[in-house]
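Anyone opening a protein record will find just a pair of labelled lines. A complete record is shown below as an example:
=====
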Amino acid sequence: MSEERQLHVADGIVLEAELAVATTEPRAAIVLCHPHPQYGGTMRSIVISELFKALPGRGVTCLRFNFRGVENSTGFHDHGVGERDDALAAVALLTSEAPELPLVLAGWSFGGDVCLSIADDRLAAWLAIAPPLRFASALDEIGADSRPKRLVLAEHDEVRPPEEIERAVTGWQATTIDLVSGASHFFMGRTDHVVAAADRSIAEVAR
């Protein structure tokens, strides 16, 4: 069961969100950031929905939310700038809801880039799923950070080939790349591989 929440962003934006509490022994918490709003991305997009459905049963409390301007969230799309504040508001809420749990910041596509724009002390790890690395703004800082990072890439990604992403993160500390064979950017028929990769990411920091 999930519960509706509201996120209050520093600039006055109010975001709709859903919280799903771990249904087994709690071991971690995760914020889920969705794909690009201007291409139909919402917190109900397939990969985000699959993670939100699967992870509570694995001991992970999940928070998903709609970026500004999406569905019932107020404001307007801000090309990855204001969306960083949106994600920080989600981190703040989940930290208050589950202060004892290590927190993973995760996102798919545009949401993955938003994650890789946030080097916050409250985070235990980052999980970026098919990030195009075109909207991210803290790559050097996060790449040099010793906390775990996992990038889940699609073999046949139509947005940006995985080999380009691999080259871009060469030299990053504490970074693991999972390549999902046969997958497109949307991971149709391969979302179970993404859930498994998320579980591996969480296991690195779980209590």
Remarks:
- The radius of gyration is 15 Å.
